[in-house]
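User: Run a structure prediction on this.
Assistant: Running it now.
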Amino acid sequence: MRHLYLDYNATTPIAPSVQQTLLPFLAEHFGNPSSSHALGRAAHEALEDARGHVASLLGTGPDEVVFTGGGTESNNLALKGVAFSRGTSAGGHLVITAVEHPSVVQPARFLERLGYDVTVVPVTSQGVVQPEAIARALRPDTLLVSVMLANNETGAIQPLKHIADLCHAEHVPLHTDASQAVGKIRVQVDELGVDLLTIAGHKMYAPKGVGALYVRQGVALEPALHGAGHEAGLRAGTENVAYIAALGAAAALAGKSLDASQERLLSLRDRLLNLLREGAGEKLTVHSESAPRLPNTLSISFPRATGHELLARIPELCASTGSACHSQTPSMSPTLAAMGVSSEVARGTIRLSLGWYTTADEIDRAASLLLGAWEAVRS
């Protein structure tokens, strides 16, 4: 069966050139980057080259990039690191939004169990948080605000610069989970005004199991892992040089192709939507259609059908009924629930996310298969 992959928001394939960067560090260049001999120095050089590539993509300095084991670890380090930097029993207040990824929600809930207060700010029907709602949630004891840059399900992009200005006026740092945005759209930390920013390698054509956290100078974090002081003391443990080198290569690749990739993906996404609307009319619901969105993401609901039913009839189509984290569960995703989407519309939702290797022929084929499955289910 020839698979038709439209699930790039769940994970991306490793880019061929990224794989070629990775492989030598699994064999001949196996040195520990903390060692002073030739093999160790080569590994250390690769580590710092990768740090420079990630920093360049974000518009920051290499000393503000901390490598982690992925987006989940970066989010945990940001939230717990800020909270615990004042002592584990100090308490305080955090603000998140109703559409955050579980790797932000669950650390916040963990901190809540320890006695911290957590405010969850709602979003509009388009899945966008209103900056004024964040401002109203701030308190004198607010330690951190965390707002994702782009939603993994709908692609909705949040107004981070406005939010950052409001937070900084109250001397509150802002963290953003940018896992879905980095490599797809321009992400510059100073333009956004954020103090902490999460990257996940496997969302940007690097392997699973590697990520990074941007930490603005002056932001105090307690490490999640304690040990020999790797990564400026914020992430102990011998670095995964092969995967970090791959992440650096992916960052360099993304930086070179960002504008052209955005334009191409937006054209393909709109082509897909137009084809689906030609076949189904205006009965389709496009989630966050009126919001600024990622150019590759289309979250759409078919009436009188469920997403699971449709995808079950098209085994060659790799797509999701929501985020990959929720696609195996029958309950409505928290994102759609927060947007006030009805249960009927939520049940018919499929997320189609495009990537570097998506072709126009695949878009046409996907539209045909989806419309055919929808007609079969309706009849």
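The longest helix spans residues 241-280.
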